[in-house]
Amino acid sequence: VKKEELHASLSDPVLDTMNFLNEVTSRYPDAISFAPGRPYHGLSNVNEMSDRIGRYLAHLDERGHSPQQVRDALYQYGPTAGQIRELIAGSLLVDEDIDVSPEAVVVTVGSQEAMLLVLRALMADRDDVLIVSTPCYLGIVGAARLLDVAVTAVPEGDDGPCVAELETAILAERARGRRPRAIYLVPDHANPSGATMPLDARRALLDMAERTDVLIVEDSPYRLLGPEPPPPTLKALDRACRVIHLGSYSKTLLPGIRVGFAVADQEVVDGTGRTGLLAHELAKIKSMVTVNTSSLSQAVVAGSLLASAGRVSQIGAELAGHYAGALRATLVELDRRLPAERRAALGVAWNSPRGGFFLALTVAFRADEAALTRSAKRFGVIWTPMAYFHPEGGGDRGIRLSISHLTPADITEGVARLGRFIEAETVRR
Ligand SMILES: Cc1ncc(COP(=O)(O)O)c(C=O)c1O
Q: Is 350 in the pocket of ligand 1 (CB under 6 A)?
């Protein structure tokens, strides 16, 4: 088979982005790695899994399901849109003040599948464009490449997505005859920058989406991973039904179960005037992709929601505390290794997210793959070049640090190594 005869996305660097990083990581196994955004599961006990499933089955029993129905709930193909939609809708209400009917929810194989479904449904024409705020999560760019969807990147500011710039990009796309359909962004503790949008920017974004007639795809897997909740979700503030909200249990529960969801309560009208929800259209696409999300995995999520009265914030509290501690420790160590005067001299800066897995560092040299190799080989520390997250170029002097799976000792030693690497590279220029 000739590669050039396969789909163009398979030759797109975005689909290979993490290869180099994986290669460096396996070549220098002793290096401390701030690269992977892997959730931490050291606080979990594997027996919890069967307890959670048992809890869900007991719940079905209490609700009058027959033994046959209870068995089917685990053993059979399930409804395409998911079998725990009521529990998820209930949880969104208590945790996030998002008030939607269970019919507006589609349970997906991680939020990654939700991205694919949403793009497939919205992007109808070659001229349709997805606007993304960059640096941007690679999963959405990859999904867009798979579906031949055009992406336009708009640089974010220190506080995340920049509403005025997004609007300018939308108008510019329209002026060149294309149709901006949706803006994708991560408003809370973003991957990769760690930035969180302030409340006034959220409101301004919703107004702008209304004015310019575009939808917003809000992806929020890190939202509950901080010492206090960020401002309300875009979906909770959404009065004009502009927001498709994507959720994930990968970071709050565990990624191994692969469960996420989309909330799509937009009304869809067909040629005969019949209406239904966008969620229903997403489910139709899902029926041809994964058929349904694993019943076993949904049972684990359901059991967890039942045990905490729907409060994911409560289930993940200990884990959130772990991440917040690791983030604080990283910031303290950075400040200790590169105090204000020294970092001014070296041209180094970083942001200070309150939650999530990531923070963004800017340096005075090109933080490219060659620099990463030197960092791993000579200094024993690995990080991710921010340039990976800029689909249209940029971010050459940026570094993403992920704190999600490091121990306190690794953080102390890793930041010391990083400090030495930055000193050496800056002198080298
Ligand atoms: C911003 C963002 N969205 C979505 C995902 C994927 O989540 P899931 O495991 O639910 O597919 C990730 C995972 O790294 C992410 O960082």
A: no
**Matching residue, tokens 């290869």:** 19
Tens digits of residue pLDDT in 209-227: 999 999 999 999 999 998 8
| Six-digit token string for 392 | 């249209």
| Residue 229 one-letter amino acid | P
Q: Count of H helices and E strands in the chain?
A: 16, 15
Beta bridge partners of 281: none
**Can you tell me the mean pLDDT for 270-283?**
95
From the CA of 412, how far away is ligand 1's center (Å)? 27
pLDDT tens readout for residues 25-82: 899 999 999 998 889 888 888 888 999 999 999 999 999 999 999 999 999 999 999 9
φ, ψ (nearest 5 deg) of residue 328: -60, -45
8 Å CB contact between 364 and 344: no
Cα distance between residue 225 and residue 179, in whole Å: 35
Q: Which residue has the tokens 């684990």?
A: 300
Predicted pLDDT at 280 = 98
Task: Tell me: pLDDT of 429 over 80.
Answer: no
Tokens of 210: 């209304």
| Residue 37, ligand 1, Cβ within 6 A | yes
Q: Which amino acid is at 78?
A: G
Going by CA atoms, what residue is nearest to atom 7 of ligand 1? 111
